[in-house]
């Protein structure tokens, strides 16, 4: 059985690396001295006898601002298409953190949202209604504390459900204003024809409207180095964003 | 009805709170500021200046973000609470 | 292979992009995309998150009233730096000499073993005096300080103090044309310059990132700490000083070195941003995360494993062959003198201008692959040149130096040279990988080298002019 891949995305300072270290323990290979995650780290963990390959993406506030880190994180999610993208959020500043989760959900529905530092939030008198968030986002939402090992099993169960395809739900689609939606509708068929169906066409159309040239450069690179993947793969990877 | 007086964040004194009204920046910086919660309508609190006078730390969306004068002078807001004109 | 229709080729992307640009009417659409997302997340939060008392949220930031205050901000930074050095030096002192005696003790048995087996002298030389000694010095001198420095530093990092340093110092970096986050990449440099080069990715603007890359070397990395610590404690603390006072002076000297490094960093950034790297400072945003109590044992364990041991393995991998090479160079004779002596003699006149000697310059040249091995190579060079001293304690290292005519000036200039000279081979390779520019990679070695030569030359000439040595 090939291992499932899980990409860890999240804002800086959310304890993403703490969670990554907790899960992969000493089974990770970063050759270099790097304090906080700058260099993408890789590791492994097992859950229910199944092997998972974990990739720690650089901590980013967004996938849209085109710093080197954000491009790396974005390209990994789009091109490597991990089985699960785990979005780690800071419970004490959810509003800002949710932005990134929403951006990820626009790319892929194969995501689990993990609200870290929940104990810290309780201490500060913050109450979070997980069901409400999960209902809106359409993907599993788990509250954990990586440093105090709270909620880790539940998180792994949800990762497994999404990875194995047991959990399928429609992730939230942000309905933009009429003008944007019209633009997306016009671009969508062209995008699908050009980049094939293995990439999230709606999202790419949206980025095109935004004039995201760095994404175009990445796509171009990608397309120069390989032929366009068979549309059948799209079904296997279950990219939900195009319809 | 009086028109609210807009001041740049860089001019607001420590401890004051402002509601952001406009962000006069374009491009990547605008995007970055929006990412960090500097969005029209949001409330920002001026926390403190660095020991050397600049940058300034702001409290926004339950996070603390430091901006230099170059950036904070382009974000405009109206005072809320406290010193009202 | 079927040929792809135009709509599927990479060229099609360009036409797509221009089609999209026509649809997007010059900017407002972009804001609406972001505010669309932001609106949804604000909406979700309003629905799902409730706050008992918003004031409580600010409680973790109270410490900033002191840590970043006008009066205490800088004194606290210096004090923390000093304390970290003090803990490192005081703590490493004994384990270092224990390790040195242990390795010396084992060496005795190894030599006895070789003698018993009637092994040829050259074999004993290569394996014991070269490989074993070189490696064991690196371990005993490097391991203890690194086992203390890295965890202490990681604790500070996990506590959340480093962004405050960047906040406090930003204005200095701005004045010199750099980015405030350069303070963060410099902090990384204390651990390892090669890794710090990669960490400059957090700086988005290419110009400021290049500044951070080119100047990172002026922060002493773990490979240079042992050299600095050893020389400072042997030569700077004064002959009579012992115990706590010695540790304190050593820490103060190291802090001075770091401050010199910072001043050079700022000056070089300033000059470059006025010349080759001109440009407007780009935008700056820095998050000050809440202070969090670090998980002490976990941090210590992980940083010991990840950092100390990795650094050490690298040091040993490089030190072992270097030990052998140095021994061979010191024991192959041409015209009655060893190759090593010939080389040292060649550099000697130049080195004297800089207040050092030919062996030191040669050690720096041979030490290009890794700064960790500069000191071992130097010692091996000295020992192979006749003055055989049995090194079983750190104190006897000083005798080796003194017997080769060292003064405080030699030590100071070697420290300065070590602080300022070109980065190690690994760092240079990383610089090339990150900048993809041969020109900047070469400059990143040439600029520091020029400064190192200039500074040591000035110091040596001044000291001799005023008759201080």
UniProtKB/TrEMBL annotation, chain A:
Q: What CDD domains has UniProt attached to this entry?
A: FeoB
Q: Where in the numbering of this chain does the FeoB-type G domain appear?
A: 3-165
Entry GO MF terms: ferrous iron transmembrane transporter activity; GTP binding
Give the PANTHER family listed for this entry: FE(2+) TRANSPORTER FEOB, FERROUS IRON TRANSPORT PROTEIN B
Enumerate the InterPro entries for this protein: FeoB_Cyto, FeoB_GTPase, G_FEOB_dom, P-loop_NTPase
The entry's protein name is Iron transporter FeoB
Query: Which is a Gene Ontology cellular component entry for this protein?
Result: plasma membrane
From TrEMBL, chain B:
What is this protein's gene name? Answer: feoA
Protein name according to UniProt: Iron transporter FeoA
Pfam hit, one: FeoA
Where does the Ferrous iron transporter FeoA-like domain lie?
7-79
Show the Gene3D superfamilies listed in the entry: 2.30.30.90
The organism is Paenibacillus albidus
Give the UniProt keywords, A-Z: Iron
Q: Which domain of life is it from?
A: Bacteria
Name the SUPFAM superfamilies for this protein: C-terminal domain of transcriptional repressors
GO molecular-function term, one example from the UniProt record: transition metal ion binding
TrEMBL record, chain C:
Q: Does the keyword Transcription apply?
A: no
Top-level taxonomic group: Bacteria
Q: Where are the transmembrane segments?
A: 71-91, 98-117, 137-162, 223-245, 252-272, 311-334, 346-367, 373-389, 401-422, 442-463
Please state every residue range assigned to the domain named Nucleoside transporter/FeoB GTPase Gate.
141-232, 313-436
Domain Ferrous iron transport protein B C-terminal, first and last residues per copy: 254-302
Q: Name one GO cellular component term.
A: plasma membrane
Report the PANTHER family cross-referenced here: FERROUS IRON TRANSPORT PROTEIN B (PTHR43185)
Name the record gives this protein:
Iron transporter FeoB
Q: Output the lineage of the source organism.
A: Bacteria, Bacillati, Bacillota, Bacilli, Bacillales
